[in-house]
């Protein structure tokens, strides 16, 4: 087999493996404050309602932060998005393939090389994947924020439990409440990573289908003729 043709054939076969797989998406949330311990007067809060309100406010802020970090990969306008990374990768693969195809150009193959070169255009694939990206962004949102509210842990410190009589009544004035939202933060990060991974798998699968339909299959239909012309010239 002509080495020039073998190179072209390998590059064509590798096109449908062009995706966003080089990226390993992750979401780490920035949180300096994730708990209040009720065991000291200064740290604790006077009522459970106050503890719930503060914990849920923190979780709401973190939820919006998680959404922003997910959008970094799923928003088509983001420079780190799956879509733009895929487009850059496919353009690079096609440029490499055009260069390899150009080396196959001879007087006998020029017309065929031109026809194959005309098929190495990504526009239709890009249109497909812009639509797919929008559909997947709607299909893989973060779970509702209420999921994380239910993961928060609440604590109560009641010094009256160890007292009797009048001291018990007096100690009740020192009841304090606290919370721990670290389990909710961990769940939010895990969910964001899982959604991104599922989005990415679906995106890459659809990209392979689109590349095969619009580029690989039409080009492969013409490769046997190119091989025959090059083999004939070598013999």
The amount of helix comes to 55-70%
Q: Helix/strand/pairing class, anyone?
A: mainly alpha
**What's the end-to-end separation, in Å?**
11 Å
Task: Determine the strand fraction and express it as a percent band.
Answer: 5-15%
Cα-based radius of gyration, to the nearest Å:
30 Å
Element pattern in H and E = HEHHHHHEHEH
Helical run tally: 8
Assembly state of the chains shown: single chain
Placed side by side, the strands forming the largest sheet appear as 1-3-2
User: Poorly predicted ranges (pLDDT <50, ≥5 residues)?
Assistant: 163-171
The gross shape turns out to be rod-shaped
The total strand number stands at: 3
Average predicted confidence as pLDDT? 90
* Major sheet summary line: 3 strands, antiparallel
In brief:
By secondary structure, the chain is mainly α. The chain has helices at 3-14, 48-74, 82-102, 110-119, 123-139, 146-149, 165-171, 182-234, and strands at 35-36, 153-157, 176-180. The longest helix is centred in the last third of the chain and has 53 residues, at 182-234.
